[in-house]
Amino acid sequence: MEKTFGTELQLPRPLASPLDKWRAVGPVLRRCGALAAGFAGGWAVLYGALMPFGLGLTLGAGEDCFAACAVGAVLALLLRGGGVRAVGLICAVGAAVVARWLWPRRFLPAALAGGGALLVSAACFSPYLGLSGLWQSGADALLAGAIGWALRHSPPEKQGAGRLVLAAGVVCALGSIWLGPLSLGVVVCALVELVLCCRGRGAEALAGAAVCGAALCAADGQLAFAAAGLGCGTAAALLAPGDKLLCLAAYGGGCLTGALCVQPPGSAFAYLGAVGVSAGLFGLTPRRLLLRDVSLRHDPTEHAGRPQLSAAATRLGAVAESLSSLAETVNQVYDTLPHRCESFRWVIDNTHDTLCANCGRKEECWNKEYAVTLDGMQALKPILEEKEHVEVQDLPGQLARCIHPAALSGTVTRSFALYRSRQEARIHAEAMRSALTEQYGAVAQALSVLSDQIGTPGSPEPYKSGRVAAFFSSLGMPPLECAVTLDNLGRTRAAVTLPRARFSQAELSALAQEVGRICRRGLETPQKLTCKGITTLIFTERPLLRAVFGAAGTAARGDVSGDAVQQFCSPGAAQMILCDGMGTGRPAAVDGNLAAELTGRLLKAGFTAELAARLVNVALALKSEDESGATLDLISVDLYTGTARLFKAGAAPGFIVHGGKARAVGEPSLPVGVAGAVNGQSRVVHLAAGDLAVLVSDGLLVDGSGWVLKQLELAGASGDSPDKIARELVDTARARAENTGRPDDITAAVLRLEVY
User: Fold this and answer.
1) pLDDT digit string (tens) for 328-343?
2) CA-angle at 209, arms to 50 and 155, nearest 5°
3) pLDDT one-digit tens code per residue, 192-221
4) Torsion of CA 202, 46, 114, 39, to 10 degrees
5) Over pLDDT 90: what percentage of the chain?
6) How far is Cα 681 from Cα 362, in angstroms, rounded to an integer?
7) Which of 617, 608, 687 is CA-nearest to residue 655?
8) Is cis: bond before 264, omega within 30 of 0?
9) H helix runs in 520-667, sequence order
10) Chain centre distance of CA 300
């Protein structure tokens, strides 16, 4: 059921999934993760003295898991030891937990309580800590507050500073753990960076390399060279995203740069050993895990902004290849099989088998006088082709000895009729086979074009997509899909898919203005596509040019013209079509209007002129048993650049007025619907503001094209409207046609480009 603009849409409640049973485990896993993160934060030590991560993670963790984080930090402090400073940190963590319980969702009370408790503890134990201990406690309080503030404003569940802070704490804790000569922090950092590089997530990999490298240096000064090597390896591995082996090779080559920084060189073996362990773990990781991007899993708005269309594009491409292969296979099998080449000899053989085989004079006619009999039968061929039957008096002299002349003439006539019918059936079957394979090929090409369009939707802009989706949700119309993209030329395009809805022209204009404000671009009134309960609005950037159309025509006899004109603007392009049906009157009008209507629909769907002509050619060929055909004259103008693409199949020459000079374009060719394939011609010209493009039917050129060129130059110089230009061309052509006595349907379609 359709909903009007601005009303709240009731979406159906989603069905329960079997995975819902496992969602109850999520909070438990989240608290376990917070416990582990708190333990790592409590264990981490910066520059051998500072320990801010335990308190900072407690201040910044979510409301459901800060207590678990505090427990982990306290356990790590107890296990690590640290004397009086550890006691002060434990008191600070406890004070922060109490403050968060008393003032939930407020950061400042918890930060003041934790930092104050830490400073008070340091003051109480100042005889043991000394002045340096007081300074270290103050630094811990400030750093813990900064860490907590970063985590509150950027939760680790999303990409951002919070995730990097958490990673720094974990790496700092692991950097102080050595398994023999191997640093656990180097092993983990190298493995994580390899995975990010293989997934092609360059920004996250580079940011992680910088932050984790700094954390390794802070955990142990001896790992400075390792941080440099890991950064070089990350930069090199980004050159081969998606390829496991190449990514590993590039990363290993970059890491060798870090080994050159080690003095003395012998200590580089421990660093290279840690990288080797990471490479081995990376090699054992399944490829499907390395290519799965879950970065947007926790942000449904941003996830909706990225079109997930690669699977659909792949399936369309596969269907296109199958149909194309099917057409090729049918043609190859037909060419390979032996064909019956029936000639007039079949009529002679059939007459012999039907009549002469049972005659008493068979031996004399077909053995002793075979050559004479065969000449007589061959002499019947021109008679049959002219009259399609043979009378007794038409029998040639070579057959005068036949004792059954009436039966012979009747048998020959029936055999020839059967021969003609079989010949026509064979021609019809071959025509149907050609039409079928051409249709398969045309549909395959159409699907291939759609696959290319879907598979390359442009560069996504997730932030703008999320804002546009939020705007439609605020109107009570949550979008099913929303994608804002940039094409190769930097033009903005937004596609919003909604449950079926109705919009007035004023509402569409208001939507274009608001979406343009969000995207910071001027947008055209959106194109609305509706199909099976879904409405899609396509917003395109406002072009530099706009098209003004004009058309006029007159019929040769009566009121029915065989010419048909379509003029419209698709997203970013102006389209003008002129089709001239073969002949005049109603049959020509049917062919002309059918060709123009089908071509217009295909162009609006995004097909090229060549592909549209191919599909229309099949439709006209199969329309009826009568011969059908129509000329196809088409011009498509890119309103951003002024590039015009002309396509002509059997059409009369068109005219371009550029810079005040008129010239004709186009050469003779066959109309569509006549031959098995389209014999069209394409041409590209460049137009500017003020230029004209004119399409005419052949009836307008009955007296040549010289006068048309002069009249168009005068009209262009005087700035006449396209409607006036078209009407003057048709009226002048009608007067000239009456003088020649050769009336025909006359039509002119005019397009003028103007600055938007």
Assistant:
1) 766 666 666 565 656 7
2) 70
3) 777 777 766 667 777 777 777 777 777 776
4) 70
5) 6
6) 61
7) 687
8) yes
9) 585-604, 609-621
10) 21
How is residue 289 written in tokens? 């895990």
Residue 122 — very low, low, confident or very high, per pLDDT cuts 50/70/90?
A: confident
Write out the two tokens for 557.
Answer: 């006899």
3-state secondary structure of 224: helix
- Rounded to the nearest angstrom, the gap between the alpha carbon of residue 275 and the centroid of all alpha carbons in its chain is 40
Whether residue 549 contacts residue 747, with contact meaning beta carbons closer than 8 Å, is answered with no
Q: Which token pair is 523?
A: 């947008």
CA 326, distance to chain mean position in Å, is 25
Structure token digits, residue 579: 């089709």
Q: Which residue has the higher pLDDT, 256 or 661?
A: 661
Q: 134-143, pLDDT tens digit by residue?
A: 777 787 788 8
Give the contacts of 750 (CB within 8 A, at least 6 positions apart).
549, 550, 551, 692, 693, 694, 722, 723, 725, 726
Question: Can you give the pLDDT at residue 751?
Answer: 94
Residues paired with 563 in a beta bridge? 580
Residues 624-656 as b or e (16 or more Cβ within 10 Å = b)? eeeebbbbbbbbbbbbbebebbbbbbbbbbbbb
Q: Assign 3-state DSSP to the chain and report helix, strand, coil percentages, each to 5.
A: 60, 15, 25
What does the alpha-carbon distance between residue 332 and residue 262 come to, in Å, rounded to a whole number?
A: 68
The band of 733, judged by pLDDT with boundaries at 50, 70 and 90, is confident
Residue 251 near residue 236, CB atoms below 8 Å: yes
CB of 459 within 8 A of CB of 488?
Answer: no
Output the pTM of the full model. Answer: 0.49
